[in-house]
From TrEMBL:
Its EC number is 2.8.2.-. Residues 79-342 form the Sulfotransferase domain. Keywords: Transferase. InterPro entries: P-loop_NTPase, Sulfotransferase_dom. Belongs to the sulfotransferase 1 family. GO terms for molecular function: sulfotransferase activity. Pfam families: Sulfotransfer_1 (PF00685). This is Sulfotransferase.
Length: 352
């Protein structure tokens, strides 16, 4: 039976369109077929509680495999829509906030902005969540343009996809460290119910990540898919690096606005609108908002409050966790997988 999703407007409208009994039964059959296919995939528990299944060469949580299948077959955005894409722990929340505040800057003042009382997840929901309720959402009722987000690899998106895509990647060393911390929090939360759960060994997690076994991994294949597409269709795919955005957020926000089709005017530049949005969406500001400190604003059921998805957000924090041997190994893999395509990550020490 379909679960009633708890989305705020305008996304709640996707599930409120009149539906016949035939529509309901059709969707139920579609999702039942996806769940049957998913049940046949082996489950890997090494990242528990983030159990994983390998679906079309990428590692995905079993609960999201059916929704990924639904996205592949039924997500049909308009050319004006925008899809935000990241690897887990690569600046997802930050990019959601920046893109939403930029696109809707004429609708809200900074002092009374929805991001002050609403999580970025509610403003820009995951496709994997929207398509996870045994009901194909009717996204045609949403205003144009609409921003969606996902962790899906490019090869898992619909082949007919024609909307604009913004991909944000992060140095794999920082990505791994941040991901390990997230899983630790999930394990601590789960251990209140199951005392047998222990800490995820850092070395074991590192070996898994290096082998390409991680949530939404392999990391390098995920990044490379969007990098190649950004070179093939730069007018449709904007490829951004977390480290470069952190170093110069103002210039990158201008670039983002231009790509989304809503460039800042000279008057807005003079009035400091760009800087105001950067400040509103800064990591420190978002982390301190009450709505991001508890579970009340969460769209999807989760074990952790939104605050758990804000750790440090710093560039180069990996130096505090990775041995020299680990650094050399990840750098070697990155060079082998990406350098031949002209993509690299600049190593940097942690910012104090």
């Amino acid at each position: 039976m379909a679960i009633q999703p708890n989305y705020a407007p305008p996304f709640s409208q996707c599930f409120l369109s009149p539906r016949t009994q035939e529509d309901i039964e059709r969707d139920e059959q579609i999702y039942n077929s996806y769940e049957k296919l998913s049940s046949q995939l082996p489950i890997l528990d090494d990242w528990y509680p983030l159990t994983l299944q390998n679906y079309q060469s990428f590692w995905i949580h079993p609960s999201q495999v059916p929704s990924c299948m639904a996205v592949q077959s039924h997500f049909n955005p308009r050319p004006s829509d925008i899809l935000i894409v990241t690897n887990p722990k690569s600046g997802t929340t930050w990019l959601r906030a920046l893109s939403y505040a930029t696109l809707h800057r004429h609708s809200f003042s900074i002092s009374d902005h929805p991001l002050l009382t609403t999580t970025p997840e509610q403003c820009v929901p995951f496709l994997e969540g929207l398509f996870n309720y045994h009901t194909i959402p009717n996204i045609s009722v949403l205003p144009s343009p609409t921003i969606f987000s996902t962790h899906l690899a490019f090869s898992l998106l619909p082949q007919s996809l024609d909307c604009r895509i913004v991909f944000l990647c992060r140095d794999p060393k920082d990505t791994f460290v941040s991901l390990w911390h997230l899983v630790q929090r999930l394990r601590i939360s789960s251990s209140t119910e199951d005392k047998s759960i222990v800490e995820l060994d850092f070395n074991k997690a590192f070996q898994l990540f290096s082998q390409g076994i991680s949530p939404r991994g392999p990391f390098w294949d995920h990044v490379l898919g969007y990098w190649k597409e950004s070179k093939r269709r730069p007018e449709k795919v904007l490829f951004l690096k977390y480290e470069e955005m952190m170093e110069d957020p103002v210039s990158h926000l201008r670039k983002l606005a231009e790509f989304m089709g809503c460039p800042f005017s000279m008057e807005e530049e003079r009035d400091g609108v760009v800087e105001d949005i950067v400040k509103l969406c800064s990591f420190d500001n978002l982390r301190e908002l009450e709505v991001n400190k508890d579970n009340k604003g969460s769209v999807e059921s989760r074990r952790l409050p939104p605050s758990s998805f804000f750790r440090k957000g710093k560039v180069g924090d990996w130096v505090n966790y990775l041995s020299m041997e680990m650094v050399e190994k990840l750098d070697a893999i990155t060079k082998e997988k990406l350098h031949g395509f002209g993509l690299s990550f600049e190593s940097s020490a942690a910012v104090p």
